[in-house]
Fold this sequence. Notes:
Number of strands: 12
Number of helices: 13
Strand order of the largest sheet: 5-4-9
Strand content: 15-25%
Amino acid sequence: MTILNSLRLAFKGGAAAGRPRLARWFSSPWGASFTDDAPFSYDSAIRAGYERNPVAQRAVRLVAEGVGGAPVESAAPGLAALANASSAGQRLFETVAAQLLLHGNAYVQILRGADGGVAELFALRPDRVTILPDARGWPAAYHYRAGEAIDAIGPDGRPQIVHIKGFHPLDDHYGLGCLGAAAEAIAVHNAATRWNRALLDNAARPSGALVYDPGDGSTLSPEQFARLKAELEGAYQGPGNSGRPMLLEGGLSWQAMALSPADMDFAGLKEAAAREIALAFGVPPMLLGLPGDNSYANYREANKALWRLTLLPLVQTICEAIGQGLADWYPGAALDVAIDRVPALSEDRERLWSSVTAADFLTREEKRAMLGLTPEEEMI
């Protein structure tokens, strides 16, 4: 099957192997109008899970900014500068990390200069990219949609797109991000926020009820009920009327009300949802200021855990993918993280140096190898 035939299948809704799937990276949508198997809008997911949820946004920014600030180096001249450059005004690694967390896929386009060399690495919006497989199911080309324009990007001797994706056990072409795993917790957290705001709009609790009991079995007329309701809303609700005394007419009595234990535990439910969101994005809750479940003795230990368990593996994944994509221009070169220059890991590095230096049974070259240093004979 040629690329042209794949494109035709894509726009005609052909076989599943040739049909682009633009929104199938999550299994749990927001809102009751969607089912577990139905696709949903990625834009809506971003608005609910990133724009409107402070925990998810802070977790993503904490990871993405950490990855973007990681010291990346390479032995090839110009390769590290190319990787550390900005893409559309943002650091390339920071943009790619955020896309992997939210979408599960990141597409880096290799832009060439007039001399045929690599001029820039540009991060494409993943929700605009569709993979077009060939007859065997391997990715043959990509198309990028921006408005009504569609840019088909196919092979041209050398790679033009570096596709970095998270592991997805049920999809051969698209990766799985963290936003889907956090979907239910984000929905609970957003619902709890709306609930708390509604309580604040009503003096922070259902303060009570007016009971009409004249003793003769009569009821309020619709006009009387409407007038009484309007008076309550205008004169006694809202923060400006807090504590204002109420004057009741004959037959009306005030019955105080309070929150049930389940309602009072709503704050705890919101905190549990926030910790689940942090867990999905690989961020220790302590770094997000979340109470409870602090598994680390202090902030420093939590920051080291973030680097060891989340940031370094993500940076290494991006470095390996970009290094492989640029292998035709930089043969044998690789991108790597300079762990010695990561401030959060300086204590671990000092302990390693001290223990290796004190090991008298090791030769000088063995010590250099354990510390990840180049052998001395190669430096001559």
